[in-house]
Amino acid sequence: MSDQKLVSRSEDFSEWYNTLCLRADLADYGPVRGTMIVKPYGWALWENVTAALDKRFKATGHLNAGFPMFIPKSFIEKEKKHVEGFAPELAVVTHGGGEELEEPVVVRPTSETIIGHAYAKWIKSYRDLPLLINLWNSVVRWEMRTKLFLRTLEFYWQEGHTAHATYEEAQAETIQMLNIYADVYENEAAIPVYRGRKSASERFAGADETYSLEAMMGDGKALQSCTSHNLGQNFAKAFEIKYLDKNNQLQYCWTTSWGFSTRFIGALIMVHGDDQGLIMPPRLAPYQVVIVPIAKNDAEKEKVMPVVDRIRSELAAADVRVKVDERDETPGFKYNDWEMRGVPLRIEVGPKDVEKGSVAMARRDVPGREGKSFVSQSGIADTVKAMLDTIHKALYDRALKMRDENTHDPKDYAEFKNAMEKGFALSYWCGEAECEAKIKEETKATTRCIPLDGQPDVAGKCIHCGKAAKEKALFAKAY
Fold first, then answer.
1. Are residues 265 and 351 in the same domain?
2. What's the rounded mean pLDDT across residues 320-325?
3. Same domain (yes/no): 381, 424
4. What is the dihedral of CA 33, 37, 42, 45, to 10 degrees?
5. Of the candidates 66, 142, 203, 287, which lies 20 to 30 Å from 107 by C-alpha distance?
6. Measured between alpha carbons, how far apart are the two ends of the chain, in Å?
7. Same domain assignment for residues 187 and 260
8. Do residue 322 and residue 440 come from a single domain?
9. What is the pLDDT of residue 79?
10. What's the mean pLDDT in 190-205?
11. Do 428 and 411 touch, CB atoms closer than 8 A?
């Protein structure tokens, strides 16, 4: 663990974030600039996230598969918008085995092209549809500015790829997956999100429509939390993905893709963390409970440890992820360490607790005495599970309050610019790219999405140019 001092969030949010990733033992820097090592504690968190997603994917009929990380460069060039969008970020291999390759290969930036190649071979009839496949892998994008979890040269993610007989089926799939992501963010990570459609300039390269979740971080900036794309027939036409319909007519498929990456961990840190370190949402935390035995000598240890072992067994039997900290360190050191790592609930067991048949319980989300209580050892598993649910709700409510208090409805462009100093603005926008570019130039804010929910029933005027506008867009500075 890094021993670098953790600055306060208000003093330097970016430095606080970078230091916390290291001090909480989530990650370290790789030897190649812009790469990241995910350490066991960070990987355990990612495993819990992937399990929550994988369960939902399989429940909706998706199957996991594995595809090569090397893609012929010619594949990338088949879809014009796709190659234009990704060209600056591509890592290209030109030599292998000591010889120059006949055709350069691209290290996977995303898999739409190689999926298209395979689907063209696999899909022949309407009976082969829908084809619903998900990949768990890593991808490489040669980013110039990197930040642990949020933007690295290589990052871990899942990417789903589906093929359908009709536009309507593809669109339903696109929204279904967006809603699955929202469910994980809100009901597993306790992070409220806006669901919305991206503007044309923010759309995925090669998609007809891109949808995203947008979350507010602790400094008021936005983080694009996942994306779901309706690719229309663009990739189907580029890769000749066709099927014979029920009338024996050859038709192009309609395809989708959708992805969720380790930047989720960055969101979790920035939404819930405080000046003492991480605050893990209970449903995803690697350890939901840490038990700290308190004993000054061997005699007290002999008295305390049987109770500690019994409580650990009861919690484990109730499917609570529990850790007993038996390190040769002071209780104060252990408290600070687990607070830094964000474990939701700490249980302290000392000789007096054994005598009283109770334990001390401390909530990570409520610091100091207010978060501490004494509860009976009897029925401890039920008590703990109820408290973990209470913590989840408290974290969600706190994040929602922060987001709502910093989401503005400015009356004019001057108010809009003030709002962009910290927070979001929900404002009418004409939909024109030129106007969008001007706003970005003048405020450094972008259209995060056009929210799917809560759109006004009446038209208005664009916050920037004053032209007629039918929809409100969510604007913010972003990571």
1. no
2. 98
3. no
4. 100
5. 203
6. 26
7. yes
8. no
9. 74
10. 96
11. no
Domain shared by 328 and 196, yes or no:
no
Classify residue 392: in a domain, yes or no.
Answer: no
Instruction: Give the sign of the dihedral formed by CA 105, CA 109, CA 113, CA 119.
Output: positive
User: Can you give the residue range of the structural domain that contains 370?
Assistant: 289-387
Partner residues linked to 155 by β-bridges: 139
DSSP lists the bridge partners of residue 375 as: 359
Strand partners for 66: none
Question: Which residue, chain included where needed, has tokens 């706190």?
Answer: 398
Phi then psi dihedrals of residue 336, to 5 deg: -65, -40
What CATH code is carried by the domain that includes residue 420? 3.30.110.30
Are 47 and 155 part of one and the same domain? yes
Domain of residue 301, CATH code: 3.40.50.800
Helix (H, G, I), strand (E, B) or coil at 203: coil
Helix (H, G, I), strand (E, B) or coil at 22: helix
Asked whether the whole model's pTM tops 0.90, one would answer yes
Tens of pLDDT, residues 453-471 = 999 999 999 999 999 999 9
CB 218 within 8 A of CB 456: no
Per-residue pLDDT at 85: 72
Do 414 and 353 sit in the same domain of this protein?
no
pLDDT at 82 over 90: no
pLDDT, tens digit (0-9, with 9 covering 90-100), for 411-422: 999 999 999 999
Q: Which two tokens stand for residue 55?
A: 């369960």
Q: Do 341 and 436 share a structural domain?
A: no
pLDDT of residue 342: 98
**CA nearest to 274, candidates 14, 25, 9:** 9
